[in-house]
Structures are given as C-alpha cells and as structure tokens.
Amino acid sequence: MFEALLSNKLALAYFSAGPIILIYFGIKSWNEYRERSDFIKSMQEMMGSKPTLKDQIKTYAMYLLAAIIILVAWPVFVAWLSYDKYKDYRDMLERRKPKFFCTNEYLIRKITPLEAEKDSLVIDPLGMAPSIPFGHLNGAWCEFLAKIEVSDEIWLYEIPKDSITGKDYHRATSLMRGYAHVRRKKIIGEFVRQSG
Amino acid sequence: MTAQAMESLVFNGERLRMCTTPLDIYLTQRGIQFYSETTANWRGYIGSWEIKGSEEIGYRLYLVELSASIAYQQRVGLDHLFPDYPNGIFAHWFTGEIRCPRGDRLHYVHGGYASIYEEDLFLEFQEGVLKGTRVVKNQAPTPIAQEDLPPFLRRGG
Fold it and tell me: What does A44-101 look like in DSSP terms, one character per residue?
C-alpha cells in the first residue's frame, strides 16, 4: 500500500515537472518572439513569403512533437539544454582568451632580458636603424618588459615556417622568432622579434 | 574581400609591385592600426620599399615612404611613425619571402593578393637582409566548365 502510494507520488512528481518546464519555455519563447528588434521584424517580413497550409501543419506538428518530448522525457531535454548552455559558456571563454602567435609547443628555453638583448643589437651600415637592442622594435620590447613581474618568466620561442599557430589559426609564412611572457605556465604576452 | 592595394618596391633599379606587407608585424607590436578609407586597402596604408646596399655590406630592405590614413582624408607619412628616421628605416624584423608579381595579369581574383600574374619574383630575407631570389612562372588557371559548377554559381542563361 505504502509502496504503491510512494510510486504514485513519484510518478505524479515526474509528470508534473514536464508541464512546468513546458510552460516556462513556452513563455520564454513567446517573449523572445515578441521582443524581436524592428530590423529582424522588417527582414522577416521582406523575406517571408506567406506560409502554405503544409508549412503551417509541419510547424505545428514540430511544436507538438517537442511538447510531447518535454512532457514525457523532460530529463533528456534538461540534459540537452544544460549541455547547450555549457557549450555557449565554453565558446564564450574561448573567445575571451587572449590570442598570441606563440603557443606552449613552440617555447624553447627560459631566458633573461639581458640574454635576449645581448644578441639583438641592430647595426645598419646606412644608419637607418637605432643601434640598440631590437632597433626600431626597442619601444615594443620595453613595453613587453614593463609588464613582467618578479615571478614571471620570459621564454624564447620559434615557430617554424608553415605552422598553424594560435592567433586566429595564423599560418606562419616564415620562421617566427620572439619571446613569450609566461605566468604560471601560461603565455600572457609576446614580443615578435622577427617574422614575415 | 576586395583585391588589396599593393606596396611598391625598387630592386636593381626596377620598380616592382609587392604582395607582402612587411610593416604589419611592426604595427602589430606597437598596437598601431591605421584607418581604412577603402575596401581595396583594409590596412589603411601603402608603403614604398627599396632594397639598398652592396656586395660588401649586403642588400637590405628599407621602407622609404609611407602614406597612411589616421582618419578620413587625413594622411601621414613615415615621420609619423619614425620621427627620427623620416628618410627611411631598415626593416630588420622582416624574415621571410616577399612576392613581387611581374608581367600581365592572367587571372583576376577578387580578394587579397590572390590574382595571378605572368611570373612572381620571390625575394628571401633574413632579419631584413636579402638572402636569395627565385622566379616562378605562372599559367592562367583552366576555366571551370559551367556544368561542373554547383547550380547556384552558374551563369544565368
């Protein structure tokens, strides 16, 4: 008796959740439809030829099918929705990531600023570059160094020609060489010394 | 993307067009972006380059002129970027190949530097110093028959 009551209660709870979820998404979708921008409305009016009876039947059949799925198998719907939200969140994090040409696989060795500057003096016989480390790029180098904190590291990197690298899946058309600003094993800045 | 305006290069007394933009990496490093006045020049500038030098000191790549937009119809020159070097700068950061198309255009492509010319002269540089040259002869691509194209790309008839 008690077991039957319990299973009835569980079934009731299960099948009550479906309509609640359905009503929630129904209202949400209706609001989204109503709050379309004027631009979207005018575009839809421009593009949309009048739906045929067949189109309308298909649309309502799809809504009906979706409603049945939500009512009967709402945990599957909730799981799919959660996964979709998680994917959006993951994509948003990916978009926000700073993008550099250099990625971890191209790091060669840790280097001090002094070592980096030692072999980077630019000498131009025609005097069209300042005879200082990294020549015309000295200002960029100083900006790069200014961001280095005591616990940070500078790594020499080399990206071979034709590699597909981090920044917007850039293809290196030549050897790229420079220095990466590494904080807790993560690249947070870079200075490109030579590239094509 | 529209076909992009080329840079110019003087090499061995010959004025060439250039399908490479060696200044880009410098601008990226300095966080400088010019204003684009036309879709045919998204980068917002045109540089004039020259290879100068001799057998003894080597041949090097120099940017000798610049015309860049900082706002609509407001152009600046090389002195805007390099006030201490208004007559030219050595592009010591440039490692790679410069492509200079020569001859007639065989095939137009409405994007970037993808058009095909009779030949391409490639100049190989290492840290701004010329290391070698090579010439590649090109041929116009075989036109694709209308029936081989997907229906939405076929010409209406």
Answer: HHHH-PPPPHHHHHHHHHHHHHHHHHHHHSHHHHHHHHHHHHHHHHHHHHHHHS---S
In this complex, how many residue pairs, one in chain A and one in chain B, have their CB atoms less than 8 Å apart?
76
Q: Do A130 and B88 touch (CB under 8 A)?
A: no
Cβ–Cβ gap B82/A140 under 8 Å = no
What is the number of alpha carbons within 13 Å of residue A66 lying toward its C-beta? 14
CA distance A176 to chain B (A): 8
For residue A179, give the 3-state DSSP assignment. strand
Q: What is the pLDDT of residues B48-89, one digit of tens each?
A: 999 999 999 899 999 999 999 999 889 999 999 999 999 999
Cα A34 to chain center, whole Å?
Answer: 30
Write down the domain spans for chain B. Answer: 7-139
**Geometric angle at alpha carbon A74, from A13 and A60, rounded to 5°:** 120
Whole-structure pTM value: 0.72
Q: Kindly provide the ipTM of the predicted complex, given to two decimals.
A: 0.86
Number of H helices, E strands in chain B: 2, 9
